[in-house]
Amino acid sequence: MHILLVASAFNSLTQRVHAELRDRGHTVAVELALPDGSLSEAVRRHAPQLVLAPLLKTVVPREVWAAYPCFIVHPGPVGDRGPSSLDWAVQEGAERWGVTVLQAEEEMDAGDVWASVACPLPPLSKSDLYRGEIADAALAAVLLAVERFASGTHTPVRQETSRPRPYLDQSVRRIDWDTDTTDTVLRKLRAADSQPGVLDVLLGEEWYLHGGHPDNGLRGAPGELLATRAGAICRATRDGAVWIPELRRRRRPGQPRSVKLPAVQALGDRLPALPELPVPPGARWPTWTDIRYREEGGVGFLSFSFPGGAMSTTQCRRLLDAYRQACARPTSVLVLGGQRDFFSNGIHLGVIEAAEDPAAESWANINAIDDLVEAVLTTTDRLVVAALAGNAAAGGAMLALAADEVWCRSGCVLNPHYRLMGLTGSEYWTYTLPRRVGAAAADRIVREALPMSAAGALGLGLVDRVVECAPQDFAAEAGRLAARLASLPGTRARIAAKKEALERQESTEPLSDFRERELAAMHRVFHDPDAPYHALRRAFVRKEKPSCTPPHLAQATGPRTTAEPVRSADERTP
User: Fold this and answer.
1) Does 137 share its domain with 181?
2) Confidence class for position 23, pLDDT limits 50, 70, 90
3) In whole angstroms, what is the distance from residue 518 CA to residue 336 CA?
4) pTM higher than 0.85, yes or no?
5) Which stretches make up the Formyl transferase C-terminal domain (predicted)?
6) Which residues pair with 513 in a beta bridge?
7) Same domain, 103 and 205
Protein backbone atom coordinates (compact mmCIF):
# COMPACT_ATOMS: atom_id res chain seq x y z
CA MET A 1 0.00 0.00 0.00
CA HIS A 2 0.86 3.66 -0.18
CA ILE A 3 0.85 4.80 3.46
CA LEU A 4 1.23 8.37 4.70
CA LEU A 5 2.69 8.87 8.17
CA VAL A 6 1.39 12.02 9.85
CA ALA A 7 3.44 13.03 12.89
CA SER A 8 4.24 15.96 15.14
CA ALA A 9 7.93 15.01 14.81
CA PHE A 10 9.98 12.37 13.04
CA ASN A 11 10.80 10.76 16.37
CA SER A 12 12.16 7.30 17.15
CA LEU A 13 8.80 5.51 16.90
CA THR A 14 7.85 7.24 13.66
CA GLN A 15 11.25 6.29 12.25
CA ARG A 16 10.80 2.67 13.26
CA VAL A 17 7.32 2.47 11.73
CA HIS A 18 8.66 4.14 8.56
CA ALA A 19 11.52 1.64 8.24
CA GLU A 20 9.56 -1.50 9.09
CA LEU A 21 6.63 -0.71 6.78
CA ARG A 22 9.13 -0.22 3.95
CA ASP A 23 10.76 -3.54 4.86
CA ARG A 24 7.37 -5.17 4.24
CA GLY A 25 6.94 -3.74 0.77
CA HIS A 26 4.83 -0.66 1.48
CA THR A 27 5.55 2.76 -0.01
CA VAL A 28 5.78 5.32 2.79
CA ALA A 29 5.83 9.11 2.93
CA VAL A 30 5.81 11.49 5.90
CA GLU A 31 4.05 14.78 6.57
CA LEU A 32 4.75 16.73 9.74
CA ALA A 33 1.80 18.35 11.48
CA LEU A 34 3.21 21.87 11.74
CA PRO A 35 1.56 25.01 13.15
CA ASP A 36 1.72 26.93 9.87
CA GLY A 37 1.00 24.02 7.53
CA SER A 38 -2.22 22.67 6.06
CA LEU A 39 -2.39 18.99 6.94
CA SER A 40 -5.56 18.53 4.92
CA GLU A 41 -3.91 19.88 1.79
CA ALA A 42 -0.83 17.73 2.32
CA VAL A 43 -2.88 14.56 2.71
CA ARG A 44 -4.85 15.34 -0.48
CA ARG A 45 -1.58 15.85 -2.34
CA HIS A 46 -0.28 12.41 -1.28
CA ALA A 47 -3.63 10.64 -1.87
CA PRO A 48 -2.66 7.72 0.39
CA GLN A 49 -4.55 4.48 0.82
CA LEU A 50 -4.03 4.80 4.57
CA VAL A 51 -3.05 7.62 6.94
CA LEU A 52 -1.17 6.47 10.04
CA ALA A 53 -0.21 8.73 12.95
CA PRO A 54 2.54 7.17 15.16
CA LEU A 55 3.03 10.42 17.13
CA LEU A 56 0.47 13.18 16.89
CA LYS A 57 -0.01 15.87 19.52
CA THR A 58 -2.79 17.67 17.64
CA VAL A 59 -6.28 16.68 16.52
CA VAL A 60 -6.64 15.21 13.04
CA PRO A 61 -8.81 17.59 10.98
CA ARG A 62 -12.30 16.33 10.13
CA GLU A 63 -11.64 16.74 6.41
CA VAL A 64 -8.78 14.22 6.75
CA TRP A 65 -10.39 11.44 8.77
CA ALA A 66 -13.70 11.81 6.94
CA ALA A 67 -12.03 11.36 3.53
CA TYR A 68 -9.26 8.84 4.28
CA PRO A 69 -8.86 5.85 6.59
CA CYS A 70 -6.86 7.36 9.43
CA PHE A 71 -5.29 5.33 12.26
CA ILE A 72 -3.91 6.80 15.49
CA VAL A 73 -1.23 5.02 17.53
CA HIS A 74 -2.06 5.65 21.20
CA PRO A 75 0.52 4.62 23.87
CA GLY A 76 -2.07 3.17 26.21
CA PRO A 77 -4.40 0.16 26.50
CA VAL A 78 -7.94 0.12 25.15
CA GLY A 79 -10.07 2.69 26.97
CA ASP A 80 -7.16 4.82 28.12
CA ARG A 81 -7.37 8.35 26.74
CA GLY A 82 -5.45 11.59 27.03
CA PRO A 83 -2.19 13.27 26.02
CA SER A 84 -0.12 12.01 28.99
CA SER A 85 -0.99 8.32 28.91
CA LEU A 86 2.48 6.86 29.35
CA ASP A 87 3.50 9.61 31.80
CA TRP A 88 0.64 8.67 34.11
CA ALA A 89 1.46 4.96 33.84
CA VAL A 90 5.12 5.49 34.84
CA GLN A 91 4.35 7.98 37.61
CA GLU A 92 1.70 5.66 39.11
CA GLY A 93 4.01 2.65 38.90
CA ALA A 94 1.95 0.54 36.47
CA GLU A 95 3.52 -2.85 35.78
CA ARG A 96 1.57 -3.65 32.60
CA TRP A 97 0.56 -1.32 29.82
CA GLY A 98 -0.18 -1.47 26.12
CA VAL A 99 -0.54 0.30 22.80
CA THR A 100 -3.76 0.75 20.84
CA VAL A 101 -4.26 1.56 17.16
CA LEU A 102 -7.62 3.23 16.74
CA GLN A 103 -9.55 5.02 14.05
CA ALA A 104 -9.52 8.82 14.13
CA GLU A 105 -12.81 10.54 14.77
CA GLU A 106 -14.16 13.74 16.30
CA GLU A 107 -13.36 12.82 19.90
CA MET A 108 -9.66 12.24 20.63
CA ASP A 109 -8.66 8.61 21.37
CA ALA A 110 -12.31 7.49 21.26
CA GLY A 111 -12.41 5.79 17.85
CA ASP A 112 -12.89 2.14 16.96
CA VAL A 113 -9.98 -0.17 17.78
CA TRP A 114 -8.07 -1.87 14.96
CA ALA A 115 -5.42 -3.49 17.14
CA SER A 116 -4.17 -3.50 20.72
CA VAL A 117 -1.01 -5.12 22.09
CA ALA A 118 -0.10 -5.42 25.78
CA CYS A 119 3.42 -5.07 27.15
CA PRO A 120 5.28 -5.09 30.48
CA LEU A 121 6.32 -1.79 32.04
CA PRO A 122 9.49 -2.27 34.12
CA PRO A 123 10.49 0.55 36.50
CA LEU A 124 12.53 2.60 34.04
CA SER A 125 12.40 6.04 32.47
CA LYS A 126 9.55 6.93 30.12
CA SER A 127 11.93 7.61 27.22
CA ASP A 128 13.67 4.24 27.63
CA LEU A 129 10.32 2.44 27.76
CA TYR A 130 9.04 4.42 24.78
CA ARG A 131 11.93 3.24 22.63
CA GLY A 132 11.77 -0.28 24.08
CA GLU A 133 8.67 -2.07 25.35
CA ILE A 134 6.23 0.57 24.07
CA ALA A 135 7.85 0.73 20.63
CA ASP A 136 7.79 -3.08 20.34
CA ALA A 137 4.09 -3.16 21.23
CA ALA A 138 3.34 -0.22 18.93
CA LEU A 139 5.07 -1.83 15.98
CA ALA A 140 3.22 -5.11 16.54
CA ALA A 141 -0.09 -3.26 16.80
CA VAL A 142 0.60 -1.18 13.68
CA LEU A 143 1.51 -4.22 11.59
CA LEU A 144 -1.59 -6.05 12.78
CA ALA A 145 -3.83 -3.06 12.05
CA VAL A 146 -2.33 -2.58 8.58
CA GLU A 147 -2.77 -6.29 7.82
CA ARG A 148 -6.39 -6.18 8.98
CA PHE A 149 -7.10 -3.05 6.96
CA ALA A 150 -5.47 -4.53 3.84
CA SER A 151 -7.60 -7.67 4.12
CA GLY A 152 -10.75 -5.62 3.62
CA THR A 153 -12.68 -8.05 5.84
CA HIS A 154 -11.89 -6.89 9.36
CA THR A 155 -14.40 -4.91 11.40
CA PRO A 156 -12.82 -2.72 14.10
CA VAL A 157 -14.15 -2.99 17.66
CA ARG A 158 -15.98 -0.11 19.29
CA GLN A 159 -14.66 1.11 22.64
CA GLU A 160 -17.32 0.41 25.24
CA THR A 161 -15.65 2.13 28.19
CA SER A 162 -13.01 4.80 28.45
CA ARG A 163 -10.91 6.55 31.04
CA PRO A 164 -10.03 10.09 29.94
CA ARG A 165 -7.08 11.51 31.85
CA PRO A 166 -5.85 15.10 31.88
CA TYR A 167 -2.49 16.43 30.82
CA LEU A 168 0.07 15.63 33.52
CA ASP A 169 1.23 19.12 34.44
CA GLN A 170 4.00 20.31 36.72
CA SER A 171 1.68 20.70 39.70
CA VAL A 172 1.37 16.89 39.79
CA ARG A 173 4.95 16.20 38.79
CA ARG A 174 6.48 18.46 41.44
CA ILE A 175 8.71 16.74 44.01
CA ASP A 176 8.23 17.36 47.73
CA TRP A 177 11.72 16.57 48.97
CA ASP A 178 10.62 16.60 52.63
CA THR A 179 7.89 13.99 52.27
CA ASP A 180 8.41 12.04 49.01
CA THR A 181 10.20 8.72 49.34
CA THR A 182 13.01 7.75 47.00
CA ASP A 183 10.59 5.52 45.09
CA THR A 184 8.13 8.39 44.62
CA VAL A 185 10.89 10.78 43.52
CA LEU A 186 12.18 8.24 41.00
CA ARG A 187 8.72 7.66 39.54
CA LYS A 188 8.20 11.40 39.08
CA LEU A 189 11.61 11.84 37.47
CA ARG A 190 11.18 8.82 35.22
CA ALA A 191 7.70 9.89 34.11
CA ALA A 192 9.08 13.24 32.91
CA ASP A 193 12.19 11.97 31.10
CA SER A 194 13.24 13.08 28.57
CA GLN A 195 10.43 15.64 28.26
CA PRO A 196 9.20 17.79 29.88
CA GLY A 197 11.42 17.21 32.93
CA VAL A 198 10.39 17.95 36.51
CA LEU A 199 10.36 21.65 37.39
CA ASP A 200 12.15 22.26 40.68
CA VAL A 201 14.01 24.90 42.64
CA LEU A 202 17.71 24.22 43.02
CA LEU A 203 20.22 26.63 44.56
CA GLY A 204 17.67 29.44 44.35
CA GLU A 205 16.82 29.02 40.65
CA GLU A 206 14.21 27.06 38.69
CA TRP A 207 15.45 24.07 36.74
CA TYR A 208 13.92 21.11 34.93
CA LEU A 209 15.38 17.87 36.29
CA HIS A 210 16.02 15.10 33.75
CA GLY A 211 16.72 11.48 34.59
CA GLY A 212 16.81 9.71 37.93
CA HIS A 213 18.75 6.79 39.41
CA PRO A 214 18.74 5.50 43.00
CA ASP A 215 21.75 5.44 45.29
CA ASN A 216 21.92 2.77 47.97
CA GLY A 217 24.37 4.38 50.34
CA LEU A 218 24.37 8.18 50.49
CA ARG A 219 22.19 10.04 53.00
CA GLY A 220 21.53 13.68 53.88
CA ALA A 221 18.87 16.22 54.71
CA PRO A 222 15.96 16.01 52.22
CA GLY A 223 16.78 18.06 49.12
CA GLU A 224 20.46 18.47 50.03
CA LEU A 225 23.10 18.11 47.33
CA LEU A 226 25.49 15.36 48.42
CA ALA A 227 28.00 14.57 45.67
CA THR A 228 28.79 14.56 41.97
CA ARG A 229 29.67 11.74 39.60
CA ALA A 230 30.35 11.80 35.87
CA GLY A 231 28.60 15.16 35.48
CA ALA A 232 25.55 14.13 37.53
CA ILE A 233 24.49 15.43 40.95
CA CYS A 234 23.27 13.36 43.87
CA ARG A 235 20.39 14.77 45.90
CA ALA A 236 19.06 13.44 49.19
CA THR A 237 15.48 12.24 49.56
CA ARG A 238 13.58 11.54 52.77
CA ASP A 239 14.91 7.98 52.92
CA GLY A 240 17.82 7.83 50.49
CA ALA A 241 19.23 9.68 47.51
CA VAL A 242 18.91 9.95 43.73
CA TRP A 243 21.37 10.75 40.96
CA ILE A 244 20.17 13.38 38.46
CA PRO A 245 22.29 13.38 35.27
CA GLU A 246 20.90 16.43 33.45
CA LEU A 247 19.33 19.84 34.07
CA ARG A 248 17.65 22.41 31.86
CA ARG A 249 17.18 26.01 33.00
CA ARG A 250 13.60 27.25 32.95
CA ARG A 251 13.11 29.54 30.01
CA ARG A 252 12.76 33.20 30.84
CA PRO A 253 10.24 35.37 28.91
CA GLY A 254 11.54 36.38 25.51
CA GLN A 255 14.40 33.90 25.55
CA PRO A 256 14.83 30.79 23.37
CA ARG A 257 14.30 27.34 24.82
CA SER A 258 17.19 26.33 27.04
CA VAL A 259 19.43 23.33 26.41
CA LYS A 260 19.65 20.13 28.45
CA LEU A 261 23.15 19.76 29.88
CA PRO A 262 25.04 17.51 32.28
CA ALA A 263 23.94 18.74 35.71
CA VAL A 264 27.38 19.80 36.92
CA GLN A 265 27.99 21.81 33.77
CA ALA A 266 24.54 23.41 33.91
CA LEU A 267 25.01 24.61 37.49
CA GLY A 268 28.55 25.81 36.88
CA ASP A 269 29.82 28.22 39.53
CA ARG A 270 26.54 27.96 41.46
CA LEU A 271 27.43 24.43 42.54
CA PRO A 272 28.94 24.29 46.03
CA ALA A 273 32.05 22.25 46.75
CA LEU A 274 30.91 18.62 46.68
CA PRO A 275 32.88 15.37 46.71
CA GLU A 276 33.29 13.67 43.35
CA LEU A 277 32.47 10.00 43.95
CA PRO A 278 33.63 7.98 40.94
CA VAL A 279 32.73 4.33 40.64
CA PRO A 280 35.44 2.09 39.21
CA PRO A 281 34.24 0.48 35.94
CA GLY A 282 34.37 -2.96 37.57
CA ALA A 283 32.32 -2.07 40.66
CA ARG A 284 29.48 -4.48 41.41
CA TRP A 285 27.57 -2.69 44.18
CA PRO A 286 24.14 -1.22 43.32
CA THR A 287 24.76 2.41 42.49
CA TRP A 288 24.50 4.43 39.32
CA THR A 289 27.36 5.07 36.93
CA ASP A 290 27.36 5.63 33.18
CA ILE A 291 30.31 3.30 32.40
CA ARG A 292 30.80 -0.22 33.78
CA TYR A 293 33.12 -3.14 33.08
CA ARG A 294 32.72 -6.78 34.05
CA GLU A 295 34.10 -10.15 32.94
CA GLU A 296 32.60 -13.57 32.48
CA GLY A 297 35.07 -16.25 31.48
CA GLY A 298 37.04 -15.05 28.49
CA VAL A 299 34.64 -12.20 27.68
CA GLY A 300 34.84 -8.59 28.82
CA PHE A 301 31.73 -6.41 28.81
CA LEU A 302 32.21 -2.64 28.63
CA SER A 303 28.75 -1.09 28.98
CA PHE A 304 27.93 2.59 28.81
CA SER A 305 24.74 4.62 28.92
CA PHE A 306 24.74 8.35 28.20
CA PRO A 307 21.51 10.41 28.30
CA GLY A 308 19.99 10.70 24.87
CA GLY A 309 22.85 8.69 23.40
CA ALA A 310 24.96 11.86 23.05
CA MET A 311 28.68 11.66 23.86
CA SER A 312 30.48 14.85 24.89
CA THR A 313 34.22 15.36 24.67
CA THR A 314 34.56 14.41 28.33
CA GLN A 315 32.37 11.32 27.98
CA CYS A 316 34.30 10.13 24.91
CA ARG A 317 37.59 10.51 26.76
CA ARG A 318 36.30 8.68 29.83
CA LEU A 319 34.96 5.86 27.66
CA LEU A 320 38.29 5.65 25.83
CA ASP A 321 40.12 5.35 29.17
CA ALA A 322 37.76 2.55 30.20
CA TYR A 323 38.22 0.86 26.83
CA ARG A 324 41.98 0.89 27.20
CA GLN A 325 41.68 -0.59 30.69
CA ALA A 326 39.38 -3.30 29.31
CA CYS A 327 41.92 -4.09 26.60
CA ALA A 328 44.55 -4.65 29.29
CA ARG A 329 42.50 -7.58 30.60
CA PRO A 330 43.17 -11.20 29.45
CA THR A 331 40.03 -11.70 27.35
CA SER A 332 39.56 -12.89 23.77
CA VAL A 333 36.24 -11.10 23.17
CA LEU A 334 35.26 -7.59 24.26
CA VAL A 335 31.60 -6.59 24.05
CA LEU A 336 31.03 -2.85 23.71
CA GLY A 337 27.52 -1.51 24.35
CA GLY A 338 24.73 -0.75 26.77
CA GLN A 339 22.38 -2.99 28.66
CA ARG A 340 19.41 -1.43 26.85
CA ASP A 341 18.25 1.74 25.06
CA PHE A 342 20.63 3.94 23.00
CA PHE A 343 23.99 2.68 21.81
CA SER A 344 25.23 6.11 20.72
CA ASN A 345 24.15 9.09 18.64
CA GLY A 346 27.62 10.58 18.27
CA ILE A 347 28.84 14.00 19.39
CA HIS A 348 26.93 15.97 22.06
CA LEU A 349 25.21 18.82 20.23
CA GLY A 350 23.79 20.25 23.46
CA VAL A 351 27.17 20.66 25.12
CA ILE A 352 28.50 22.11 21.87
CA GLU A 353 25.64 24.62 21.63
CA ALA A 354 26.18 25.76 25.23
CA ALA A 355 29.95 26.17 24.80
CA GLU A 356 31.54 29.60 24.77
CA ASP A 357 33.08 28.65 21.40
CA PRO A 358 30.86 26.05 19.67
CA ALA A 359 33.31 25.64 16.79
CA ALA A 360 36.17 24.79 19.16
CA GLU A 361 33.99 22.41 21.18
CA SER A 362 32.74 20.74 17.98
CA TRP A 363 36.37 20.19 16.96
CA ALA A 364 37.35 18.82 20.38
CA ASN A 365 34.32 16.50 20.45
CA ILE A 366 34.84 15.06 16.98
CA ASN A 367 38.51 14.38 17.71
CA ALA A 368 37.64 12.71 21.02
CA ILE A 369 35.14 10.33 19.40
CA ASP A 370 37.59 9.70 16.54
CA ASP A 371 40.19 8.67 19.12
CA LEU A 372 37.73 6.16 20.53
CA VAL A 373 36.87 4.75 17.10
CA GLU A 374 40.58 4.51 16.24
CA ALA A 375 41.20 2.51 19.42
CA VAL A 376 38.48 0.03 18.42
CA LEU A 377 39.70 -0.23 14.83
CA THR A 378 43.30 -0.89 15.91
CA THR A 379 42.52 -3.49 18.58
CA THR A 380 44.23 -6.60 17.22
CA ASP A 381 44.57 -8.91 20.22
CA ARG A 382 40.87 -9.79 20.64
CA LEU A 383 37.55 -9.63 18.80
CA VAL A 384 35.42 -6.58 19.52
CA VAL A 385 31.64 -6.85 19.32
CA ALA A 386 29.37 -3.79 19.20
CA ALA A 387 26.16 -4.85 20.95
CA LEU A 388 23.34 -2.46 20.08
CA ALA A 389 20.54 -2.83 22.59
CA GLY A 390 18.95 0.32 21.16
CA ASN A 391 19.16 2.95 18.48
CA ALA A 392 22.34 4.35 16.95
CA ALA A 393 22.85 7.34 14.69
CA ALA A 394 25.52 9.43 12.96
CA GLY A 395 28.92 8.99 14.64
CA GLY A 396 27.44 6.54 17.12
CA ALA A 397 26.42 4.22 14.29
CA MET A 398 29.91 4.56 12.82
CA LEU A 399 31.44 3.74 16.22
CA ALA A 400 29.60 0.42 16.05
CA LEU A 401 30.97 -0.26 12.56
CA ALA A 402 34.52 -0.06 13.91
CA ALA A 403 33.94 -3.37 15.72
CA ASP A 404 34.59 -6.79 14.21
CA GLU A 405 30.95 -7.80 14.60
CA VAL A 406 27.78 -5.74 15.10
CA TRP A 407 24.84 -7.30 16.91
CA CYS A 408 21.49 -5.49 17.07
CA ARG A 409 18.36 -6.06 19.06
CA SER A 410 15.47 -6.53 16.65
CA GLY A 411 13.86 -3.24 17.72
CA CYS A 412 16.86 -1.04 16.85
CA VAL A 413 16.63 1.87 14.44
CA LEU A 414 19.85 2.94 12.72
CA ASN A 415 20.58 6.29 11.09
CA PRO A 416 24.12 5.93 9.70
CA HIS A 417 24.34 9.36 8.08
CA TYR A 418 25.22 12.99 8.83
CA ARG A 419 23.64 15.09 6.08
CA LEU A 420 20.63 16.29 8.06
CA MET A 421 22.94 18.13 10.46
CA GLY A 422 24.86 19.75 7.65
CA LEU A 423 27.95 17.60 8.23
CA THR A 424 30.08 15.35 6.05
CA GLY A 425 30.97 13.16 9.02
CA SER A 426 34.04 11.57 10.53
CA GLU A 427 34.58 8.54 12.83
CA TYR A 428 36.40 6.78 9.95
CA TRP A 429 33.09 6.21 8.18
CA THR A 430 34.66 6.55 4.73
CA TYR A 431 36.62 3.41 5.59
CA THR A 432 34.19 1.33 7.65
CA LEU A 433 30.90 1.88 5.79
CA PRO A 434 32.14 1.00 2.26
CA ARG A 435 34.04 -2.05 3.54
CA ARG A 436 30.74 -3.42 4.82
CA VAL A 437 28.23 -2.52 2.11
CA GLY A 438 30.30 -1.42 -0.88
CA ALA A 439 30.95 2.08 -2.19
CA ALA A 440 27.66 2.54 -4.08
CA ALA A 441 25.45 1.42 -1.19
CA ALA A 442 27.48 3.53 1.26
CA ASP A 443 26.95 6.59 -0.91
CA ARG A 444 23.24 5.90 -1.15
CA ILE A 445 22.83 5.40 2.60
CA VAL A 446 24.43 8.73 3.52
CA ARG A 447 22.69 10.56 0.68
CA GLU A 448 19.16 9.25 1.33
CA ALA A 449 19.49 9.88 5.09
CA LEU A 450 16.61 7.56 5.95
CA PRO A 451 16.23 5.36 9.02
CA MET A 452 16.64 1.63 8.70
CA SER A 453 15.46 -1.23 10.85
CA ALA A 454 17.76 -3.86 12.31
CA ALA A 455 16.50 -6.35 9.73
CA GLY A 456 17.09 -3.86 6.93
CA ALA A 457 20.62 -3.22 8.19
CA LEU A 458 21.24 -6.99 8.30
CA GLY A 459 20.09 -7.32 4.70
CA LEU A 460 22.54 -4.62 3.63
CA GLY A 461 25.43 -6.20 5.53
CA LEU A 462 25.63 -3.26 7.89
CA VAL A 463 25.15 -5.54 10.91
CA ASP A 464 26.03 -9.19 11.39
CA ARG A 465 23.33 -10.47 13.70
CA VAL A 466 19.82 -9.45 14.77
CA VAL A 467 18.84 -10.70 18.21
CA GLU A 468 15.09 -11.29 18.50
CA CYS A 469 14.30 -10.55 22.12
CA ALA A 470 12.62 -8.13 24.51
CA PRO A 471 14.62 -5.08 25.65
CA GLN A 472 15.13 -6.58 29.11
CA ASP A 473 16.62 -9.76 27.66
CA PHE A 474 19.20 -8.33 25.26
CA ALA A 475 22.12 -8.12 27.69
CA ALA A 476 21.75 -11.78 28.67
CA GLU A 477 21.40 -12.87 25.03
CA ALA A 478 24.46 -10.87 24.01
CA GLY A 479 26.37 -12.44 26.91
CA ARG A 480 25.42 -15.94 25.80
CA LEU A 481 26.44 -15.25 22.20
CA ALA A 482 29.73 -13.66 23.28
CA ALA A 483 30.60 -16.65 25.46
CA ARG A 484 29.99 -18.93 22.49
CA LEU A 485 32.15 -16.73 20.25
CA ALA A 486 34.99 -16.86 22.78
CA SER A 487 34.79 -20.67 22.90
CA LEU A 488 34.84 -21.25 19.14
CA PRO A 489 38.02 -22.97 17.89
CA GLY A 490 38.37 -20.46 15.03
CA THR A 491 38.36 -17.34 17.20
CA ARG A 492 42.11 -17.35 17.79
CA ALA A 493 42.71 -17.69 14.06
CA ARG A 494 40.35 -14.78 13.41
CA ILE A 495 42.28 -12.61 15.86
CA ALA A 496 45.59 -13.45 14.17
CA ALA A 497 44.15 -12.78 10.71
CA LYS A 498 42.67 -9.50 11.93
CA LYS A 499 46.14 -8.27 12.90
CA GLU A 500 47.52 -9.22 9.49
CA ALA A 501 44.61 -7.48 7.72
CA LEU A 502 45.27 -4.24 9.60
CA GLU A 503 48.98 -4.41 8.73
CA ARG A 504 48.08 -4.82 5.03
CA GLN A 505 45.68 -1.88 5.24
CA GLU A 506 48.31 0.33 6.85
CA SER A 507 50.80 -0.52 4.13
CA THR A 508 48.41 0.44 1.32
CA GLU A 509 46.26 3.27 2.71
CA PRO A 510 46.78 4.06 6.40
CA LEU A 511 43.73 4.68 8.55
CA SER A 512 45.16 8.08 9.39
CA ASP A 513 44.57 9.13 5.76
CA PHE A 514 40.83 8.52 6.12
CA ARG A 515 40.75 10.48 9.35
CA GLU A 516 42.69 13.42 7.97
CA ARG A 517 40.41 13.76 4.92
CA GLU A 518 37.26 13.53 7.02
CA LEU A 519 38.46 16.00 9.64
CA ALA A 520 39.63 18.52 7.06
CA ALA A 521 36.06 18.75 5.74
CA MET A 522 34.61 18.90 9.26
CA HIS A 523 37.05 21.64 10.31
CA ARG A 524 35.88 23.83 7.42
CA VAL A 525 32.24 23.41 8.45
CA PHE A 526 32.83 23.96 12.16
CA HIS A 527 34.75 27.18 11.60
CA ASP A 528 32.47 28.64 8.93
CA PRO A 529 29.89 30.77 10.80
CA ASP A 530 27.60 30.66 7.75
CA ALA A 531 27.63 26.86 7.44
CA PRO A 532 24.13 25.32 7.83
CA TYR A 533 25.46 23.09 10.64
CA HIS A 534 25.25 25.89 13.19
CA ALA A 535 21.60 26.75 12.53
CA LEU A 536 20.63 23.08 12.25
CA ARG A 537 22.37 22.26 15.53
CA ARG A 538 20.68 25.17 17.28
CA ALA A 539 17.25 24.17 15.98
CA PHE A 540 17.80 20.54 17.02
CA VAL A 541 18.86 21.12 20.61
CA ARG A 542 16.29 23.88 21.20
CA LYS A 543 13.46 21.78 19.71
CA GLU A 544 12.56 24.37 17.09
CA LYS A 545 9.84 23.30 14.65
CA PRO A 546 10.86 23.15 10.98
CA SER A 547 9.05 25.42 8.57
CA CYS A 548 8.00 22.49 6.39
CA THR A 549 8.31 18.72 6.08
CA PRO A 550 11.85 17.88 4.91
CA PRO A 551 11.69 16.87 1.22
CA HIS A 552 13.45 13.53 1.75
CA LEU A 553 10.63 12.51 4.13
CA ALA A 554 7.75 13.88 2.07
CA GLN A 555 8.91 11.86 -0.91
CA ALA A 556 7.27 8.43 -1.02
CA THR A 557 9.90 5.73 -0.48
CA GLY A 558 9.63 2.01 -1.07
CA PRO A 559 11.63 -0.97 0.18
CA ARG A 560 15.40 -0.58 0.41
CA THR A 561 17.40 -2.80 -1.89
CA THR A 562 21.11 -3.48 -2.03
CA ALA A 563 23.07 -2.04 -4.94
CA GLU A 564 26.03 -4.41 -4.61
CA PRO A 565 26.54 -7.96 -3.37
CA VAL A 566 26.81 -7.82 0.42
CA ARG A 567 30.01 -9.24 1.81
CA SER A 568 29.79 -11.63 4.72
CA ALA A 569 31.40 -11.01 8.10
CA ASP A 570 33.94 -13.70 7.32
CA GLU A 571 34.97 -11.89 4.12
CA ARG A 572 35.39 -8.60 5.99
CA THR A 573 37.27 -9.98 8.98
CA PRO A 574 38.83 -13.46 8.65
Assistant:
1) no
2) very high
3) 24
4) yes
5) 170-250
6) none
7) no
